[in-house]
Batch of 2 targets.
Target 1
Amino acid sequence: MNLILLFESDFQANATIATITGRRLNHVLSVCQARVGDELVVGLLNGKTGRGKVLSINQSMLELEVKLVEDPPEKLPLTLLLALPRPKMLKRILAAVSSLGVKNIYLINSYRVEKSFWGSPLLTEENLKQYLMLGLEQACDTVLPGISLRPLFKPFIEDEVPRIIRNTMPILAHPIALATCPYDIQKPATIAIGPEGGFIPYEIEKFIECGFMPVNMGKRILRVEIAVTAIISKLF
Amino acid sequence: MNLILLFESDFQANATIATITGRRLNHVLSVCQARVGDELVVGLLNGKTGRGKVLSINQSMLELEVKLVEDPPEKLPLTLLLALPRPKMLKRILAAVSSLGVKNIYLINSYRVEKSFWGSPLLTEENLKQYLMLGLEQACDTVLPGISLRPLFKPFIEDEVPRIIRNTMPILAHPIALATCPYDIQKPATIAIGPEGGFIPYEIEKFIECGFMPVNMGKRILRVEIAVTAIISKLF
């Protein structure tokens, strides 16, 4: 947690005094070991970043005097279409892509996504938001990426993807593609990344019909979190 | 585990029949759900990769008829000088850099590395090897990266680093550097990556004296595992 994310609800009596409890307080107590007078890096969810001066702190509550003056770092002009990962990896992957500055995320279906994943209790709006906020706290960002679930592949690729990729470079990560991933493209992109085992040929055909360029990422099979980071880092 | 790593000790009576137990057997039973006659991707530690045909399988043992014919994927011409991460992150970071194909790893000291990390029971040769092998199994590689511990910064940077960086592009990841990270450098590199909080000015000076080019990775603070993946992916 390199930035303490603040919410409108933290400011009650006064517009500049935030009162913090729970996980964030525990972090400030145990990791930052902050004392009265210390300044902490803070940011308002979907707002500006700045400093919070510790007015009081104890085991149950932290009071900060907050000055929000700077814009958060810019997002990458990037939409990620990611086959829904297995639930136990979801938290880390969403935190990673959020820390990298991805602007929009669609968690999509694919033949090789296990049906049971879509029934996971982790997939609530609130949980997804929590995972994304871990990435914001890491990267000193405040702006939540957009996130949407698309449990049906066909209507998504036919009806929505053509609009999503408009004015972007659409790229499909595909292990056996001939082209290698381009570097430093300096323009908006949409990246599609398959599940463990990859998209099936029908799905790949649909992406290519839409205009996606299949690119390989080398011979090594990487964990999704690492593959996503690798492709984003080459492109931007 | 996209490749089952085999050891010389798995081949006892016969040079082409491997007998497997423990963690690898559990994976084949529960994830691959392999049956007699199935072929699995295998590789001999520090040797070739190929296929293993299931001759027999039960809860206590798997017998494979092994054909090793292909070279493993090439390593990146890259040496990583990484400030020793906190022990609970070490396993994942080593698995990640091993999966990415890093050739040599030095875990080094820095003022901001907590002294206690060097006393962690995780830092045995055997444990480090295990973590690196997780990355090999992920990436279908067989060749262990070199790994060395350097708990003293000054003798390392003064006596060893000049030799390590010879004929490579030496790069220092440094948040406030003016230069951005180069792309697709097409030559050997040495990358130095600091601890949480970064190298201190004295250390940065020493790296620059050696000839390291400080580069920034953008405004976002990334987890070490993600930062390492990001810089490697830009360079290669």
Target 2
Amino acid sequence: MTTQYPGHVPDGVAYTGGQYTALKDLMVSILDLGYTQGAATYDVAHVINNRFFRLDWHLERFYQSSAGLDLAIPVTPSELTDILSQCVRRAELSNALVWMGVMQGIPATGNPRDYEACATRFYAYAKPYYGISNADASAGVSLQVSTVQRIPPDSVDPHLKNHHWLDLRRAQIEARRQGYDTTVLIDRQGNIAEGPGFSVCAVRNGTVWSADETALGSVTVRAIRLIADELGIPFIHSSLPQDEFRESDEVFIASTSGGITPVISVDTRPLPQDGFGPVSNRLVRAYWEKHSDEEWTTPVQ
Amino acid sequence: MTTQYPGHVPDGVAYTGGQYTALKDLMVSILDLGYTQGAATYDVAHVINNRFFRLDWHLERFYQSSAGLDLAIPVTPSELTDILSQCVRRAELSNALVWMGVMQGIPATGNPRDYEACATRFYAYAKPYYGISNADASAGVSLQVSTVQRIPPDSVDPHLKNHHWLDLRRAQIEARRQGYDTTVLIDRQGNIAEGPGFSVCAVRNGTVWSADETALGSVTVRAIRLIADELGIPFIHSSLPQDEFRESDEVFIASTSGGITPVISVDTRPLPQDGFGPVSNRLVRAYWEKHSDEEWTTPVQ
């Protein structure tokens, strides 16, 4: 059924079941357990100037998520790379966001608990790169520390990228209503966890901090850590209580769409700098330089 | 895109955007936040012999879930009742499962955190009634107490029916691999929570127990509680530690698809009865009798 779908549907090219199509026509059955049970995983890479950025790390995470969630990907990493390249080329994009996903499918028995009776559905697509642009990024965002707790690892392993966003969404809606741009959730112990679709980093006494690496698997944070090592900037993964986080010297958020964005206030406290602080500035400059580094990128075929 | 969709797609009739269509053609865009973020809610009622069972309670819960998740339903309860009836009649079903759902939609800005920039999508459909049939039910199921914790209320309110099933699914997969039919998850304190798509009740010393009513909102358990009151059988909602649960005299699972199903073993312990125990037996008989009671049902128009 070609339902009228309101909202911004970008031009883009999608792949599934051996065929390429317009992104607007890539659909999920209402009966797919990928929809009804969030039984799905995905990853999102980006292309800048016809080069994928750390596609190796995205593929590694995608296959790990898939294995951890018992969702078989029916293509090899090499085939997947070809499919992603095809999507980008067919969409005629030099800067793109590139999705890859796999969902459970519909059980052959009709019983929604018969996961073994499903054939998984793999898909991929490319759409124009968006996110907080470099220009907007320097303006910075206000961030609220939410009272909402991130879904804990005892329930769903946060390393396995998934579509369970109701906690993130609730925190985001509450933050917006209270006048903040965005939010970061806490874990059960009240430590800083992650935001809706991004990781949070803080700079404290010259050291870059990010949430315990057991909790998350951000590709952008992985890049930042490696860059920090190269620049001789100390970097630690640890648990950070929200009270200590509020006293940070610099804060930024990190995600594939947007890269690194400065935070200009945490709750009601303005941060010392309006925009990037001195440490963040060095990291963000190097981060974008890496986008033309052959060791960090893969050309679109 | 009319993708080849493997799996069992039942005959059924769906409604969305003012139109009726075959169930197999009801699709969700890959960009809908209902898919990518599980930003959706739903409810499932059932029809036996052309009568909805406790449709009032299902509608009440559906509108509560929708309000709690900030997902506007664009039809009134009376319009919704008409739509559900239409789906059942057009599908020519006298016994049916009837879904109603609403998903976030695609943001007009393209920014996946702009929930205010979305027009929600409402849908409904009817398909043949299935589930653990009365015949199969009497055979009973083996149940494992899982080590997986149900997503806690601090993250996602379990009263608000949602598509976050990865915890339930993980427990179900693990139980099957270990030779059990099904599973029940625990809460953070190790108390019995709920199973994948059903509630669990136990009978202990003549009293029917179900998980604390703050934790769940099962329509079938609500029916059982009312029936227990009528029959003079004591019923309590409370926290039940898993060790006490394992020592129950009778255990059954309760859900819209299937009604009441006996549990014949908990972990490695067989229950005293093979099939329904004496208390469960009284409840299940009265439960099915209520399906022709005018006060408990609504005719399909």
